[in-house]
Automatic annotation (TrEMBL):
Residues 3-268 form the NAD-dependent epimerase/dehydratase domain. InterPro entries: Epimerase_deHydtase, NAD(P)-bd_dom_sf. This is NAD-dependent epimerase. Keywords: NAD.
């Protein structure tokens, strides 16, 4: 297949692109390489895919990979209404995997316009291009943050998600509603994936795993919100990507025949881990004790997440299973190699 992966310089998009290439697909990667976090890490990921930094820095420049003849990269904004349709017209994609978004719950409190531009206007442009250029399947990233203050545990895609508590979560819920509308009106399959606290090598510097490791190694204190009374369904990157690629590769013919065009899945480890236990695992691997700055709950945060993945098991025969012990060790090994 020919697959468009947006957010290809990002954490998950980089891995998805790499796995799809290894499985023989043609991949076009798209990213605007914004400055939300260190762009050097984004260019380093692209380098792993054979993309030259200087060439990738130029807007709307199609870059050929030295790693694989099946990969090209283009720097572009999703909200670019003139250039994005041209890309779709030129490339004729079978599947679009939309992983590009302005990420981060806390950042959305200070920069709301960025989230509307990227996560809503950009997503609308993706939907329009999919329906106008014959894309067979749109797979897109949602988030566990849409569950907001839901009390029922574990979180199920059958639960109501009408009370998001951050703008980031609200934009992701909006994406799900927009996808439903387009599937209903224009009869093409869309699949939303609610990711649960993704971590691992090449991860985002604004995520807890990265922040904690960096601070502990520098002998600085770490910020522990809600005084440590938090739990997360930490999901290792390889498990996330395995789920995404299975969904991309599975034909949608049966779904179309059964008029099951709109689908949602949780992708999580199906296990809630105490934040302090997570920190302990990092300390064990670093052989250092963290200095903990115990703080109240941050606006937009939730106390607990936990994914019900029954639908993923039923439809794709798959459930994530990498343990925290194994996943944290892999991240620490990468972090030491990359930064020291």
């Amino acid at each position: 297949m020919k697959v468009l992966v947006t957010g290809a310089a990002g954490f998950i998009g980089f891995y998805v692109s790499k796995v799809l290439l290894n499985k023989g697909h043609d991949v076009v990667g798209l990213d605007n390489i914004n400055g939300y976090y260190d762009v050097n890490l984004k260019y380093a990921r692209l380098h792993e895919l054979g993309i030259n930094k200087e060439a990738a820095s130029n807007y709307n420049n199609v870059c050929k990979s030295t790693y694989s003849s099946h990969f090209t990269f283009v720097k572009m904004n999703l909200e670019d209404r003139s250039e994005l349709p041209k890309l779709f017209e030129t490339e004729t994609f079978d599947v679009v995997c939309n992983l590009a978004a302005q990420a981060g719950v806390r950042y959305s409190l200070e920069n709301p316009e960025t989230y509307v531009d990227s996560n809503m206007v950009g997503f609308l442009n993706i939907l329009e291009c999919c329906r106008n250029y014959g894309v067979k399947h749109l797979v897109y990233a949602s988030s566990s943050s849409v569950y907001g203050l839901n009390k029922k545990i574990p979180f199920s895609t059958d639960d109501a998600v009408d009370h998001p508590i951050s703008l980031y979560a609200a934009t992701k819920k909006s994406n799900e509603l927009m996808a439903y509308t387009y599937s209903h009106l224009f009869k093409f399959p869309t699949t939303g994936l609610r990711f649960f606290t993704v971590y691992g090598p090449w991860g985002r510097p604004d995520m807890a795993m990265f922040l904690f490791t960096d601070a502990i190694l520098k002998n600085q204190s770490i910020k522990v919100f809600n005084h440590g009374n938090m739990e997360r369904d930490f999901t290792y990157i390889d498990d996330i990507v395995e789920g995404v690629v299975r969904i991309i590769e599975k034909p949608t013919t049966e779904r179309v025949q059964n008029n099951e065009l709109y689908k949602l899945y949780n992708i999580g480890n199906n296990n809630s881990v105490k934040l302090l236990d997570f920190i302990k695992e990092i300390e064990t691997n670093l052989k250092m004790e963290a200095k903990k700055d115990m703080l109240p709950m941050q606006p937009g945060d939730v106390e607990r997440t936990w994914a019900n993945v029954d639908a993923l098991i039923k439809d794709y025969g798959y459930r994530p299973n990498t343990s925290i012990k194994e996943g944290v060790k892999r991240f620490i090994d990468w972090f030491k190699m990359y930064y020291t």
